[in-house]
Design goal:
By secondary structure, the protein is of the alpha/beta class. Helix 2 runs antiparallel to helix 5. It is built from 6 helices and 7 strands. Strands 3-2-1-4-5-7-6 form a 7-stranded mixed β-sheet, with helices on both faces.
C-alpha cells in the first residue's frame, strides 16, 4: 500500500476527534501520514487565552492517542472567522493544503455553526482540482456532534452520509482521544458526551453492516 498524506481540517479543537477520530486512527495504523489543521479556538475577546491553551494541550493529547503526525493551529478566535477578510482565511488554509500536498482532505460539514460553514467554504477553495489540487484523490465532509444535528430541517442542509468508514477496531482509541478533551466533553445526555459519540458511531456502523462507523459525505473522489 502506498503511503498517503491525509489532511483533516477542524474548525476547533475536538471537532476532528468527534467527526473522524476513528478514521484518523485507522489511517495512522495503516502507515499513512495524518496532519490536523485547527483553524479556530477559544481565544480573546470572547474567551481568556488560558481557555485556548487548555484546549490546545488537550488536542495534543488526543492527537497522540490517534497517531496524528503533524498539527497546525491558526489561532483565529472562535465565531470570529467571519471577521477576517475571506481572502486571508482562504490563503492561510490554502498554504497548509499546499505544504501538506494531501491525497485525502477531510473537512467539516457546513452545519449550524458559522465557523464550520466558513471553514468548509475555504477548504472548497483550497482543494479545487487545479494546480496541486489535481493530486487530491478524495475530498469529503464529516459530521460533528452537536452542531451537525442542530440544523433546521429542510431549511439548512442536513448531513446524510454517502460513505461510512468501518472504525470497529478503532472505536476505543476514538473514545480515549475524546476523553482527552476534559474541558469540552459533557456528561450524558449531552451531545458531546462519550456515550452520545459512541452511540452515533454505532448507528453509522449498523447503517453499513458493521459495529461502529464514521459517516462521510464524499464531495470529490478520483478512482
Amino acid at each position: 500500500m502506498n503511503k498517503k498524506r491525509i489532511l483533516v481540517v477542524a474548525p476547533h479543537p475536538d471537532d476532528e476527534t468527534l467527526g473522524v477520530g476513528g478514521t484518523i486512527a485507522k489511517y495512522s495504523e495503516q502507515g499513512h501520514e495524518v496532519t490536523v489543521l485547527v483553524v479556530s479556538g477559544h481565544l480573546p475577546p470572547l474567551y481568556p487565552r488560558a481557555a485556548y491553551d487548555t484546549t490546545v494541550n488537550e488536542a495534543r493529547e488526543a492527537f497522540a492517542v490517534l497517531g496524528v503526525a503533524h498539527a497546525h493551529f491558526l489561532e483565529i478566535p472562535a465565531t470570529l472567522i467571519g471577521a477576517e477578510p475571506i481572502h486571508v482565511v482562504n490563503r492561510r488554509i490554502g498554504e497548509v493544503v499546499s505544504n501538506v500536498a494531501p491525497h485525502v482532505v477531510l473537512s467539516p460539514y457546513p452545519d449550524r455553526h458559522v465557523d464550520h460553514r466558513l471553514v468548509f467554504d475555504s477548504v472548497m477553495v483550497a482543494t479545487r482540482p487545479v494546480g496541486g489540487g489535481r493530486s487530491i484523490e478524495l475530498v469529503a465532509a464529516y459530521e460533528t456532534l452537536s452542531e451537525t444535528h442542530w440544523n433546521a430541517p429542510h431549511i439548512e442542509p442536513g448531513f446524510v452520509p454517502n460513505c461510512v468508514v468501518d472504525i470497529t477496531a478503532q472505536i476505543d482509541r476514538k473514545m480515549a482521544a475524546l476523553d482527552c478533551y476534559r474541558s469540552q466533553v459533557s456528561a450524558y445526555p449531552g451531545p458531546r458526551s462519550i456515550a452520545a459519540c459512541r452511540a452515533l458511531a454505532q448507528l453509522r456502523g449498523t447503517q453499513a453492516g458493521f459495529a461502529f462507523g464514521e459517516g462521510l459525505h464524499v464531495i470529490r473522489m478520483i478512482g
